[in-house]
Write a structure and sequence with these properties.
The protein has 338 residues and is an alpha+beta fold. The protein is 18% helix and 43% strand. The chain is elongated and about 70 Å long.
């Protein structure tokens, strides 16, 4: 009887302990509440990574541009993070989570003013710290108040995956090709080829090899993802007849953007079908002196009957005085019916 009573008491104590643990765990999980970031924190920060620990996604000295925008929004490295939380009643830190990469960014102090941003894993490991200061009150390009489209994490991941699949000769997948950030770019470096693939402000850039040692704009992220994934662009039917073609836009060389010398062709056929490839061929014919490299990305296709237009983005090289110069083109083609 004594043994049975002892076993019964042990069982009761065990059950109580388990229930207590379960309640405590539930309470711990419940200690995340929404954070509100004061408007005084909004602006652009220039930061440097320090105290890097084992497993950290960044190395000491990495420069990071970070923006805190209205609506409790943080933009960093091409990511837009929202819905920060307070943990365990700590009123000093607003914590943003990037769940796919398992990263947390903790801004402090909401109470006493900006100190630093701690970087860690969502599993609780502290990786390091971003140190620096707010350099302006600008929140351009971040959140609903920004002027440009900030890529989503899904778009960033898809670009790297698609590029590594379709252009493995330039961007081979490897353990060394991981997401990194610098000066507003989120990029991957491919050591075996010396190539870089990057995203900044909704545009895609390539550097290395034939593209040179400065980032070369290849087009909008949306257009390139459409091209890589095989998604077609809807091209309205174009009436037959003669058109006047006007080509305007910008051309970037060595990182400097200038106005493209306007091209006007008084009598020309418009692309003959709704096939996007016809548009690409029309582009090549109109710019016969350009050696096209990579993909011609087509977007913003419009047709009013009297006028047919579209925007193209591509890289190309020209030869002047024996020197080959590679440039990025962002042009608008307008066909006006004669």
């Amino acid at each position: 009887m004594n043994a049975a009573k002892t076993n019964r008491h042990s069982l009761v104590r065990t059950c109580v302990a388990l229930l207590t643990t379960a309640v405590a765990s539930s309470a711990a999980l419940a200690q995340e509440t929404p954070a509100t970031v004061p408007s005084s924190f909004e602006g652009t920060y220039e930061l440097t990574y320090a105290f890097a620990q084992a497993g950290s996604p960044l190395s000491n000295g990495t420069a990071v541009t970070l923006v805190i925008a209205p609506g409790n929004t943080m933009c960093v490295g091409g990511y837009t993070l929202t819905n920060p939380i307070l943990r365990n009643g700590n009123q000093h830190e607003a914590i943003w989570k990037e769940t796919t990469g398992g990263i947390e960014l903790a801004l402090s102090s909401l109470v006493n003013g900006y100190n630093e941003i701690n970087v860690g894993s969502t599993s609780g490991t502290w990786w390091g710290q971003l140190q620096g200061s707010k350099v302006s009150t600008s929140t351009a390009g971040c959140g609903t108040g920004g002027g440009s489209s900030t890529p989503t994490q899904a778009q960033i991941d898809e670009l790297f995956a698609q590029a590594q699949q379709h252009f493995a000769q330039y961007f081979p997948a490897s353990a060394n090709a991981v997401n990194q950030t610098l000066d507003g770019y989120i990029y991957r470096h491919y050591p075996s080829t010396g190539m870089y693939l990057a995203i900044s402000g909704g545009d895609v850039y390539v550097m290395g090899g034939q593209f040179g040692d400065t980032p070369s704009k290849q087009g909008s992220l949306e257009a390139i993802l459409s091209e890589l994934s095989g998604t077609t662009v809807d091209v309205p039917a174009i009436p037959e007849g003669d058109y006047k073609l006007t080509v305007t836009g910008t051309v970037g060389t060595f990182g400097i953007s200038t106005a493209f010398p306007a091209v006007v062709i008084d009598k020309i056929d418009a692309p003959k079908s709704t096939d996007i490839d016809d548009i690409r061929e029309a582009v090549k014919k109109a710019l016969s002196d350009v050696n096209f490299t990579g993909t011609i990305n087509v977007s913003e296709v419009n047709n009013t009957g009297a006028e047919f237009s579209f925007v193209i983005q591509f890289s190309g090289s020209t030869v002047a005085s024996g020197v080959t110069v590679t440039s990025t083109y962002d042009l608008k083609y307008v066909y006006t019916k004669l």
